[in-house]
Every structure is written in C-alpha cells, then in structure tokens.
Amino acid sequence: MMKPVKTKQSNRGLLEAMGSLAFLMTALLSVSCTQAFGQGTAPTLGTAQSFAVLGASKVTNTGPTVVTGALGIAPGTAVVGFPPGIVTGGAIHAADAVATQAQHDTTTAYNSLAGEACNTSYAVPTDLGGKTLVPGVYCFASSAGLTGALTLDAGGNPAAVFIFKIGSTLVTASDATVTLVNGATQCNVFWKVGSSATLGTRTHFIGSILALASITMTTDATLSGRALAQTGAVTMDTNTVSIPTCAAPPVNGPPVVGKSFTPPTILADANSKLTITLSNPNSTTATITSVFTDSLPSGVVVSGAAANTCGGVVTAALGGTGVSITGGSIAANGACTITVNVTAPVAGTYVNSIAAGALHTSIGNSVTPAVATLSVSPVTTPTLVPPTLGKSFSPANITVGGISSLVLTLSNSNRVVDTITAPLTDHLPAGMLANGVTSTTCGGVVTAPKGSTTVTLTGGAIPAAGSCTVTVGVSVDCACSYYNSVAAGALHTDNGNNAAAAVATLIAGKAPTSGPPTVSKFFYPAAIKPGGSTTLKITLANPNPAAALLTAVFVDTLPSGMVVAGLPTSVPSNTCGGTLTAVKGSAIVSLTGGHIPAYSTCALTVIVSVAKAGTYTNSLGVGVLKTDRGHNATGYNAVLTVSTSAGSGPRLTKSFAPTTIVNDGVTTLTITLVNPAATAAKLTAPLIDYMPAKMVVYGGPTNSCGGTLTAVKGSSTITLTGGAIPANGYCQLTVKVTAPCNNYFNNLPVGVLKTTNGINQEPAGAALTVTIE
Questions:
Q1: 3-state SS of the chain: helix, strand, coil percent to 5?
Q2: Are the CB atoms for 113 and 93 separated by under 8 Å?
Q3: What whole-number distance in Å separates Cα of residue 582 and Cα of residue 590?
Q4: Rounded CA gap, 650 and 641, in Å?
Q5: Is the separation of the CB atoms in 275 and 262 below 8 Å?
Q6: pTM of the entire predicted model
Q7: DSSP state of 188
Q8: Which of 199, 420, 466, 497 maximizes the CB count within 10 A of its CB?
Q9: Which pLDDT does position 771 carry in this prediction?
Q10: Other C-beta atoms lying within 10 Å of the C-beta of residue 36
Q11: What is the H or E stretch that residue 566 is in?
C-alpha cells in the first residue's frame, strides 16, 4: 500500500487551520475569564455603613488612634482608650439601639458575602503578597496572609467589586500594603474573615473587614475601610481608621498630589512614614515629564530608604531634607506612591506642603497643593512605679481533702518590663500544703513540690503595662479558715518592690457525711462497792448535715438490781432537748422528743445505784433510737462491776498542757499512773494509748515508771512496756504531741492498765482544742 504524500500546500492549510483553532480557543478562554470575574456584588451594609469600628465583646485602644466615622460595641459595653484615642465624624455607641442594629446589619452583610459564588479558589493557606488581582470573588479554604504589596486592578471600571472569602484567619506582615489602581475604589473591597483578622505593624490596608470573631490592629497600622467584628473584640494601638468615601473620579482632569504622615504624631527622633500619592483620573497613562520634588519643612529629615510604585528614580538621601522622583508614570485611572521614613529631633508642629503645579506630566500639571502635618512630642522620661502583688484562692471555699488554686498576680503599670531580681516566696499558713501542680505566665522557675509549705518564683519578668500569674494547687488538713499573706517588699524588681501586702483567705469545711444516728454509753466509775452509786452517760450522735429529730420515745431499761438514784448537779442531765424521765428508784431512763444537732452529739446523764455485788451489763439494742434520719444500726453495752474491792486497784489520769494550741502547734500529754495499795503495782501487759486521728507524737518523751516508753515521732501510739507504780504513790509518762485544727478527746478505757494489783476500773480522758491561729 502506498503512503499518502503530504504536499507543502496541504501542510500550510493544516497549520492555518490549527492557528485559527488556537485563536478561537484563546478568544473563548478570554471571554470565559472576563465573564468569571466582575460577578461579585457589593453587600448592603445598612446602618453599619457609618461605622469605622464595631466590636462585640470589647473595643480597646492604646495610643493616639484616630477613628473617622462612628465607633460602636454590642452586646458588650466596654470601650477603653478613648482618650487618648479620638473619634471624629461620628459618635461612640456602647450597647445602644444603634450599635445593636449595626451588628445585626453586619451579620446580614457577612451572610450575603458568604453566599457569593467563587471565581478563584485557593485550597491551601495563601499569601497575597506580590499579586495583582482583577475584580472577582476570591475564596480561601483556610487562611490568607499578606506579605508585601497586593494590587487590586479595576481595569478602568470604577464599579468593580473585589470580594475575599477567607475560611479562617487573615494576617498581614509588617509594612504590608493594599494598592488600588485603574479606578478601583475603597468602597468596593470586602474581606469576609471566618475567624479573626490581624493587621501587622505599619500595614496600610484597604477595604471593609467583616470578621466572625475579633480584629486586631497592631502599632501604626492604617485601615481605609471598616473593622466590623461580630463576636469578639476590636483592639487598636496608634492606628488610623477611616470609613471610605468614594466619589466618581473626574474624567480627563489634571493629576492630583496627596500626602500623609503615618503616624501623624511621633516622639522626637522617632520615625513617621511620609506617603506621597500621585493620582491620574484620565483614561491614558500620565508620564512624569520633569523632576518632582517635595522639600521637607525645616527640622524634618529623611531617616530611611525610599520606595515607590511610580517607576523612575527616587532620590532621598539619608539625613537629607527632600524627596524627589525623576521619570516614572501614573497608570490610567490609577495612582502610585512614593514612601520614605522621616524624623525630627526637636518637638514641634511641622507643616509639609507641595505647591500647586509642582507635578508635571504628559497630561498636564497638578492644580491643587498637597499639605500634611507632622506633630512631634518631646521625649520624657517616664516615672516608674513599683509593681503590685495580689493573691486569691479559687475556689475560696473547699472541703477538707479538696483542692484550691492559689494564684499570685504580679502587676506592672509601667511601659517597660519589670524584671524580677530576687526570689519571691509565699509561706503557706500552717496546715496548708502544696499539691505539686504549678504553672506561671511570668517566666522563671516555680518551686513548690508536693507537700511543701512554701511557693517560690525565681527569675522571670512582668510584662510592660500588664500582669502575670503564679498558680499552685493547695490542700488543707482540717476544717478551718486559712489566712495567707505575702508581706510588703517581698516582690523585688528592677523598678521597685511591692508597697502593700497581698492577702487571701481560704475557708475549709468538713467533708459532708451522712448515715443513721448512733448510741453509746458508759459508767463512771465503772466499778463501785455494793450500795454505792455511779454516773451513767448515754451519748446520741448524728453524722448528718441537718439535725436528727426523735420520732419515738427513746428508752434505756436498766439491768435487774440497778435503779435510778437521781440526777447530776455538776453537769447537765439532758442536752438533747425534749423531756428526760428518770424517776428515783425506777429502772427506766427515757427521752420524749428532742433532737441531735447536725454533725454533733447530745447526752443524757443520770446517777444509778446497785445494792448487791455482781457484774451488771446495760444494753441498748439495734433500732432503739428512732429519728427522721434513720435508726441506730448497732447496739451498745456498758458494764458496771460491783464488788467490795472496788476502788482499791490502780488508777489513770491524763491531761494536755496547754489545753488549746494553734494549728500544728505542740502540747504536752501527761499520763499519771496511781497506786493506792501498800505494795508496788507491776505492769503485767503493755499500756497503750491510741491517740485520736491526726494527733501524732512530736517528741520529748519522759518516763518515771521504769520499763520502756515507746513514742516514735510521727506515730499515733504511746506504749509503756514493763515498769511499776510505787506503793501508795504514782509515776508519770509525758510526751509532746501535735495536731491540725480540730477538737480532740483522748481516752484510755477501763482495763487498759493491767498490774499485779489489778486493772484500772475507770477510764481516763482529756480534751485538746486546736485553732487556726
């Protein structure tokens, strides 16, 4: 088969066809792009149109910020920093009907922008720096940034709209700029931000920012547009914010020169950016035809390198007194800028003007002057004041076993950092311990190990015009009020020490308990001679947080042979309320009505007698005590021994000296062993004193009884092994003990002392009160 032959003519036709097809595809693509852009619709801002700044939670300012337009906040009420900031061309609306409606209209506009169809989409975080964008809707799946310059080119259409829909944050770098060219207007640039927006230092930004959360403008940033925050704060620091005014540009008019200083007020020897703006309202490019010069006012000099967007060559010698541009051009229906940092070493007001006709271009000369004023304030040495120290407990009320956070707050009102020059130590009150959980925002190192009684911050600093905190978890060992103080002068910084003490109180209560009431009883003495009498004490206890009311008559039936002999005269016979019935000669003790206090006890006390020798057991059964908090779940027995030898055996007494101490203080416990017999009483078993919970041995034991006394520091038992009590005499054991705040009763029961002369037939007890201070 013969291959077809391609002639030159057929090749030429094919190339022409392919060229036509390429041209047609290019034309179609151009049409498609032109249709894709310019479709965005500017939202209606409603009453928000007149607001330059609108916050939701708070509006704060530092420095001489100038807001041109209304400033508002809703639903919050706090507007801070005005003055020194000023609001011109509008009023301040704090949580009034105007601000509330403006927030409503901002939400409507935000939702309108959210509904705009995307022309260009960015799936990853994108920096807009260095881009030139045409009208349209630009969508960012996550964040957007701006480093350097972004140019928005309207292509000669003054109605062109630029919409930026940002999924999360908008952040600009220092000195970032947004420039409008070819008829683009401030009124038609909108930034819908899904969370928060931050304008970096000296950023020159254009457009209305509608942020779902907050907006922050750092030092010397300017915004030609609006800062509208729907749920968060608007924060400013020496900024210029002005709502845009967009009039139709003149057609085929002369070039216009404008100028400004940013910031307009500086300290002596500080920098301000001089911006000279050359605008061209014509549909053709304006070429600069002669050297254009701005002569700075006397006393103002160039302090940094110049930059421009006009092309040509800019001359601005460091330390010089003028700025000039040779050559360059201004785009049709656009503008360009010349920027340079300037300074003045002497305080004063400097008026910088460029005369009419100074700018010469191919479309004519400028016909109006340009004027800007730079205010320079003298540098004054600030008066530094000492830091302050505060403290608090959170929560301030806990139960024993709970945790509270001790917070030390270090505050600095100076405009410079306060450096901590010596360790700051907080000595916790007795009974309060660190739990080992610490944190700080001051830097440095926090030392407060678990179980320690001090909190120490070493190093660190307090931020300028701010504060920092040290936080430590603490616990306590008893139900008391704890007063914690840090003395004046404890916080040492390079700008002075705290002049006042920092104090806080933590209140600890008993952990809530509950359960049925209980009963107990004892005879004192527990051994008597036939025909003698003794005291019977019945104790009713209530572990609940509310009083327990008796719902039935409480009855104690005495054992056969035991009868009521009367009521005591030295102590109350009834502390439970109600009616106590104890008829002399009867065998019944009863209580009708009454109550047991919350978390407490009450008692019934009667005198009983027995005629014949023997062992008498007095029993209270389960359920004998009936209250609205339940019935006693266990019974209780008390034993009385009646014999002709009663009272001849050894005895015990005990005491605390002093009887009241402060939290974790020290007292001396004395146990006295008495022997009334004519022969020595040798111990036949160890004598053990089990101290109440949380009472422990501190040290210093002494023993005049012989044998071996064991009292280990930190333990809760005291034991005497061996030894003897002299005939017709006594001996003593003494031990220093300590305890946290509470009320304690230390008891030695009947029979705990066993000797060759018998046992103790009566208990021995002593009370100790421990207070917080």
A1: 5, 50, 45
A2: no
A3: 7
A4: 15
A5: yes
A6: 0.39
A7: G
A8: 199
A9: 78
A10: 15
A11: strand 562-566
Structure confidence at residue 765 (pLDDT): 86
At residue 324, what is the residue type?
A: S
Backbone angles phi, psi at 77, to 5 degrees: -125, -10
Compute the C-alpha angle 92/101/214, nearest 5°. Answer: 70
Answer for the pair 66, 51: CB distance below 8 angstroms, yes or no. no
Res 482: pLDDT: 85
Of 678, 694, 639, nearest in space to 524 by CA: 639
Beta partners for 578?
none
Tokens of 327: 């050559």
Distance between alpha carbon 101 and the CA centroid of its chain, in Å? 32
C-alpha 326: how far from chain center: 58
> In the structure encoding, which two tokens stand for residue 483, read together?
């007063």
CA distance linking residue 643 with residue 613, whole number of Å: 5
User: Tokens 């852009």 — which residue?
Assistant: 37
pLDDT of residue 31: 30
209 and 194 Cβ atoms separated by less than 8 Å: no
* Residues facing 339 on adjacent strands: 275, 307
- CB 392, CB 314: distance < 8 Å: no
Cβ proximity of 210 and 193 under 8 Å: yes
Written as one letter, the residue type at 759 is I
Cα–Cα distance, 348 to 5 (Å, whole number)? 89
Q: CA 53 to CA 103: how far, in whole Å?
A: 11
* Residue given tokens 């007494």 in the structure block: 653
Q: How far apart are CA 64 and CA 264, in angstroms?
A: 9
| Residue listed under structure tokens 């042979």 | 561
Number of residues that make up the chain = 773
Sort 529 into a burial class: Cβ within 10 Å, 0-12 / 13-18 / 19+: middle
Distance in angstroms (rounded) separating the CA atoms of residues 351 and 357: 18
Among 761, 531, 554, which Cα is nearest to 639's? 761
Handedness of CA 488, 489, 491, 497 (dihedral sign): positive
In one-letter notation, the amino acid at residue 368 is: T
Report in angstroms the alpha-carbon separations of 351 from 261, 265, 344, 580. 11, 12, 12, 101
On whether the CB atoms of residues 589 and 619 are closer than 8 A, the answer is: no
Give residue 61's identity as a one-letter amino acid code.
N
Mean pLDDT by groups of 10 residues along the chain of 773 residues:
37 38 34 43 91 96 94 95 90 90 94 94 94 96 96 91 96 96 93 97 97 96 96 96 68 80 92 93 90 95 94 94 95 91 94 92 88 88 88 91 93 92 93 91 95 95 94 87 91 95 88 85 87 93 92 96 93 94 96 93 95 94 95 93 82 92 89 93 96 91 96 94 94 93 85 91 85 68
DSSP 205-229: EEEEEEESS-EEE-TT-EEEEEEEE
Alpha carbon 366 to its chain's center: 58
Q: What pairing do the DSSP bridges indicate for beta strands 348-354 and 418-419?
A: unpaired
| Phi, psi angles (nearest 5°) of residue 137 | -115, 120
Output the pLDDT for position 252.
Answer: 62
Residue 619 tokens read as 């029993």
Strands (E), 443-545: 445-447, 454-458, 461-462, 466-476, 481-486, 492-493, 496-497, 502-509, 518-524, 527-528, 533-542
Q: Which residues contact 292 (CB under 8 A, 6 or more apart)?
A: 278, 324, 325, 358, 359, 360
